[in-house]
Amino acid sequence: MATDVIMPQMGESIAEGTITKWIKSVGESVSRDEPLFEISTDKVDAEIPSPAAGTLTEILVGPGQTVPVNTVVARIGAAGEKAAAPEPKAAPAPAPEEPAPGPATQTRPSPAAAPEPRSPEAPAARPPRPVAAPEPESERAGGAVASFEDRVRTRSSPLVRKIAAEHEVDISQVEGTGISGRVTKNDLLSFIDNRKTASRPAASPAPQPATAASAPRAEVFRGDRDEVVPMTAMRRKIAERMSQSKHSAAHVATVFSIDFTAIARLRERHKKAFLDANGTKLSYMPFLFQAVTSALKEFPELNASIDGDDIVYHRDVNLGMAVALDWGLIVPVIKNADEKSIVGLAKAANDLAERARSKKLKPEEVAGGTFTVTNPGVYGSLFGTPIILQPQVAILGVGAIEKRPVVVSDQEGNDALAIRTMGYLALSFDHRLIDGAVADQFMAKIKGALEAAAFSLT
């Protein structure tokens, strides 16, 4: 009997997935738990193992197609069984409705248009869902078949459904900005606020900030030699989150110069013994991570989130570390980083980075971050001002660590030029919560810890 291969649900909030690559072809033998195909969701890119051993007899969903979770994407028959269909078929479940193609329109769905005019592949904003005559709940309950979009809407998170019930809101009336129109908490709260505003006496409307969805889309020239490709699910999600962060957080940056000379010498003395004893390399990052986690304990404003008019102070320090991939960017999280030693931080960081690049991360390993560190300095950048990863309120960028001539002073105040191992750290922070003085005190704490280099390597 054939075994169905389904699109897995990579996390509670994931409603669909995109097949990016079939590792096995129709007619090939496959072992149980052997990588069968690759998928991309708004959380992770991952390799999916085969649920059974046998022969891949049928591929139902081809590369580039997006289908709901639990859709049958392929079938595996007994070993040696003849292939049933050598060519991929169309997805069995209907995909979200696409806009009609035009001279300046991408024929693919997208949650939001990229705000920057230099992105020719940015998709058009999703057409608004009519809300004047929403389908009654009683009609759906009476047996009417809901569309895929409606099913995604009604599968909103338990928190969204709870808030909707408390405020007597029909979720189908809310315009969602999540995957395929899925209604998020912010969508629902905005709908409730707008309803309250509409019930008040008329007044002069306050100007509202532009959002990624409402911003005018620049006309893009397309020449005959230009190549147009759809955004991947990961790229669309990055565009959506970065645009949303820039429109919600009050971004401010501060940059500190750090003398890494003491850490460079410590690392050089111990890196071989460290590798032999622990089986992992010793880079600058574990020292930086430990300095950051210690400073976060002293300045809890930077290990917090803003939720409406509430401030959520996180007791755990879950440290996100941005990892550049050939196909995008992902931020795995070191959970309870403040409880780990230099050895523990090095092992966790190297393991997460390696599995991120080999598509082995689990959804829970890229969720729950409370503060993020990104390291563009490995490519030679002196410093940058990274965008805050919501719902966090700060992110630290690490510049290139390299030898430079600097002025040093001895105990008697005499100045001299010296060659030191230097680097810049740039902190982007949300001024809605964090004042400049607090941000600079936080950075001074990190600078002092790194330059003192009083770290234990055991």
Could you provide a short overview of the structure?
The protein is of the alpha+beta class. The chain has helices at residues 137-141, 148-154, 158-166, 185-199, 233-248, 261-278, 285-298, 342-357, 436-452; strands at 3-6, 16-22, 29-30, 35-40, 45-49, 54-59, 66-68, 72-77, 251-259, 304-307, 310-313, 319-321, 323-325, 328-330, 333-334, 371-374, 394-398, 402-409, 415-430.
Number of strands: 19
| Derived structural class | alpha+beta
Secondary structure: helix percent? 25-40%
CATH architecture field of the domain at 250-452: 2-Layer Sandwich
Name of the CATH class of the domain at 250-452 = Alpha Beta
**What is the chain-wise order of helices and strands?**
EEEEEEEEHHHHHEHHEEEEEEHEEEEH
Features of the shown structure:
alpha+beta, single chain, four-stranded antiparallel β-sheet, OB fold (Dihydrolipoamide Acetyltransferase, E2P), globular, Chloramphenicol Acetyltransferase
Provide structural commentary.
The chain has helices spanning 137-141, 148-154, 158-166, 185-199, 233-248, 261-278, 285-298, 342-357, 436-452; strands at residues 3-6, 16-22, 29-30, 35-40, 45-49, 54-59, 66-68, 72-77, 251-259, 304-307, 310-313, 319-321, 323-325, 328-330, 333-334, 371-374, 394-398, 402-409, 415-430. It is α+β, with helices and mostly antiparallel strands and 458 residues long. Among the domains are: 3-77, Beta Barrel (OB fold (Dihydrolipoamide Acetyltransferase, E2P)); 250-452, Chloramphenicol Acetyltransferase (2-Layer Sandwich), CATH 3.30.559.10. Strands 9, 12, 15, 16, 17, 18 and 19 form a 7-stranded mixed sheet that branches. Strands 1-8-6-3 form a 4-stranded antiparallel sheet, with no helix packed on it. A hairpin with a 2-residue loop joins strand 13 and strand 14. The radius of gyration is 26 Å and the shape is globular. 33% of the residues are buried.
